[in-house]
Fold this sequence. Notes:
globular, 6-stranded mixed beta sheet, 3 domains, about 30% helix, alpha/beta, Elongation Factor Tu (Ef-tu), domain 3, 14 helices, Rossmann fold, disordered N terminus
Amino acid sequence: xxxxxxxxxxxxxxxxxxxxxxxxxxxxxxxxxxxxxxxxxxxxxxxxxxxxxxxxxxxxxxxxxxxxxxxxxxxxxxxxxxxxxxxxxxxxxxxxxxxxxxxxxxxxxxxxxxxxxxxxxxxxxxxxxxxxxxxxxxxxxxxxxxxxxxxxxxxxxxxxxxxxxxxxxxxxxxxxxxxxxxxxxxxxxxxxxxxxxxxxxxxxxxxxxxxxxxxxxxxxxxxxxxxxxxxxxxxxxxxxxxxxxxxxxxxxxxxxxxxxxxxxxxxxxxxxxxxxxxxxxxxxxxxxxxxxxxxxxxxxxxxxxxxxxxxxxxxxxxxxxxxxxxxxxxxxxxxxxxxxxxxxxxxxxxxxxxxxxxxxxxxxxxxxxxxxxxxxxxxxxxxxxxxxxxxxxxxxxxxxxxxxxxxxxxxxxxxxxxxxxxxxxxxxxxxxxxxxxxxxxxxxxxxxxxxxxxxxxxxxxxxxxxxxxxxxxxxxxxxxxxxx
Length: 484
């Protein structure tokens, strides 16, 4: 056990942490920076059996950021509520630590320690003591000196803060619990190449039948257990085979053939699939039984064009949906252009250049309509597409709508949940994103909202995902995407 170290007689140095006596040296003591709590308030309950220490500078910074309607402000307020709840349930002296399990989270077995006294941490003269970051590093130094047998680690989302701490010889880590995957190369792609000899190894006692224009195959074999419902499988041989997994039970799976959208007779609003992944995407977008579709891909892979073509077809032709709703997070790439005049839709128009570009393409697919016909079609299309801001989504319910969330890589998992739960009966939600183009601070490929939903929704019978691999915009765009 780590015993309390008594202060020297006459010394002004007092310890906020000398009561950390309860745990063995094998458990760690994590010191939380403010940005961790403002990024994920539930981080308080994500450290399992380890203890947490919150410096007074962190509480001060939480207080400074509590005002406002931004995501950061909301998270700061929520973190303060969690702390208030924990302190309210504390049965013992706060200096002895508060059991994190009092919140009701069974995974949090550690204790929370708050800085209750001044810490006189000796920092190098080159680090000004008035800065909050340096005050937190001073706390880490003091904790490490008081409990030499215990591992004290600073947790911060601030890269420079971690660099400073490591330069001074202290352990510092990023907050990893928000990451869905450590390596985005492991992210579910929604497609799978079947191995050569698949039919020989899985076709024994195979059953096949036809229903509603599709052919179904019930196959048995070791690969079936790893398949997911709505996963797209393909076999590149003399006779290419493409299918969708509709059911998985143990080592048995049912495969359903796909509609060939690469053929002009099956075009969607004049658009035909140019590659295998685009054909997979159109099969998901045009399927009324699939309520949620995610499409990932580099610039120029056709995400927005395919989504709009499928939306127009099902809104204007088959009348499956009443209108298309498009929204996206407004994170500028360069300097912000300031406030914009007009209504909600007029304010969103500068962010919707991709919508206008793709509508120009879709409106030119019918050469026989003439200029007047195309103008009439353009007006009809515009009347069925509504552009909405994320700021006014909370509390909404969309009935029989085709909801498109563009640039979804810039959304946090919490924002993504807020948007997807707007869907009422008969609504289809399509999320588009490119995880290599994240503009939101503190979001990474592993913690982006689009990565989160792709991983969590895979295998659900009413959702599908495809990662588009090949660019189709132009040879210039494709080459620039590869070499620049």
